[in-house]
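Known limitations

Files may contain more than one protein. Parsers should not assume a single record per file. Below, a two-record file is shown to illustrate correct handling: read the sequence, read the token line, then continue until end of file.
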Amino acid sequence: MTRFSVLDLAPVRSGGAIAEAFRNSLDLAQHAEAWGFTRFWLAEHHNMPGIASAATAVLIGHIAGGTSTIRVGSGGIMLPNHAPLIIAEQFGTLDTLYPGRIDLGVGRAPGTDGLTAYAMRRGLNGDDFPQQLAELLAYLGPAQPGQRLQAVPGAGTNVPVWLLGSSTFSAQLAANLGLPFAFASHFAPELLLPALRIYRSSFRPSRFLERSYAIAGVPLVAARTDAEAQRLATSPLLRHLRLIRGEPIFTPPPVDSMDGLWNEAEQAMVESRLGVAVIGGPETVHRKFSEFLAATDVDEIIITSDVYGQTARLESFEIAADAMKQVTAAFTPSFTRGG
């Protein structure tokens, strides 16, 4: 049965506050746990007004402390921003506090701009990412006799590590290492199917995973009617528009129409980023999730929903949970998948 999960960036609404965003994230995680979502992931971004999940490990601890069964993790930590030892210690600590519930998803993108990257004392090439990843995996594994440098805590925790990506490079690396793979189709859907093909065809069983396991990100706007969902969807459209313009991306209230708010090139760019978005009322959401699973055969869908207002956001995820339970109960994959 296909699993379904939540990806959250602790979004800050226009006119709202960061403290409110943190309260809303915990509230969403608690509801997601009750609705049967498998995991709740938070993503690292820096110097982006409107996104409050920069201190990702700290926020993971806050969410895990306010829930009891749902898995909590990163989707992801941008590993080139950090020393692998520090990440191993942070997530070893989290796993010790909340055993069996912590995931560590890592990516190689900067998650920021060049100025902020310089402030974080890092470059932007990410060429040593495979070496960083190998170092991280070693720190989280059992300490070896005579090993002088250890992650304390961290060594021997074997925190599950996921490789995140939006390209075929990440898919190939995840396959070579036998790691689970999460593709960022919620903002970069173009290479989703090629990446999945490469990952599955090249996958090598490992001490981490016997069979391939793939997650795909899906943007969601669900409401009681298609018309209301389309209206609510103007908030993420405006948010992505502000992102490509280099403006602060506080979640704005919805508008009745996008006419006059973007030009043709901007519209095409925004709509391409949201190419796999599921937008609609309950029946439409059910149909679109069914079509997405039929096209991808993914093991898990991770959903992000950046609608304006906590009540509307919770309703969006609740509708998705109901739809996914129906879809996955009836779905028979053509690909033999691992879990």
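...continuing to the second record:
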Amino acid sequence: MSEPQNEKESPAFRPGSDTPFLVGLGILGGSYAIIILAMILADLAYVDRDSMLGALRSPEIHYSIVLSLLSCTLSTILSLWVAVPLGYLTSRFDFPGKRFLDTVLDIPIVLPPLVIGISLLALFNFAPFSWTSEWVVFEIPAVILAQFMVACAFATRAMRISFDQIPQRYEKVALTLGCNRGKAFRLVVMPQAKQGIVAAGTLAWARSLGEFGPILVFAGSTRMRTEVLPTSVYLEIQAGNLKGALAVSLIMIVAAAAVLATSRIMGMKRMEP
């Protein structure tokens, strides 16, 4: 039977406005970005022109900038050299001890950086590492090694995510066409992983630039020897020169921003699966 004509029809469901939800997201997310910008503006407001020019003209800061650029670049190259095969191995294969390996690789991410430096210092008291400690500990190689130990963990995690996003069917097709695993990796996987490599390299370089704890313990903070930009900030604060420390901090901010901007220009974007 049909329903009575005089019975009122139920009103159609109408979802509420999305505006409160979006405003809440904007407030929560935007507040963090605003704080970051406010800190940078505070640095700019506090540092006067003379302090900035003094930092840029200082031979110690010149040495620190050059050593930072060289050490960060070398540690990034080493990180990618290790992160690419490790990321591919943990992404594509299941093997006994994989979970243990994943845990070990994440240790430098969760540990305080200072502990990494202390552990490196202890490691070079035992053979065969002790045989080279005279040329490594408290020397420039210690700076690169300290940066590498932390940056490589982040690069490895980034590379694994990149390889996870690349479909395996392309490799399988290459294998059925006669390629071995190494050739398929070189010709099929690596071209698709370029954006991931740029992302991992950028992350490793930026992480190396900001590394302080392991360098301070394992390489020291000797002027014109093992001084990099983070230790320059520390030495300026120790000398009571807050404006000089902030000037060096601004140099680090500019360097990090330049690297990130370059990576964006080179086409670093999220890879589609």
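Parsers that stop after the first record will miss the second one. For reference, the second record is described as follows. The chain has one domain: 49-265.
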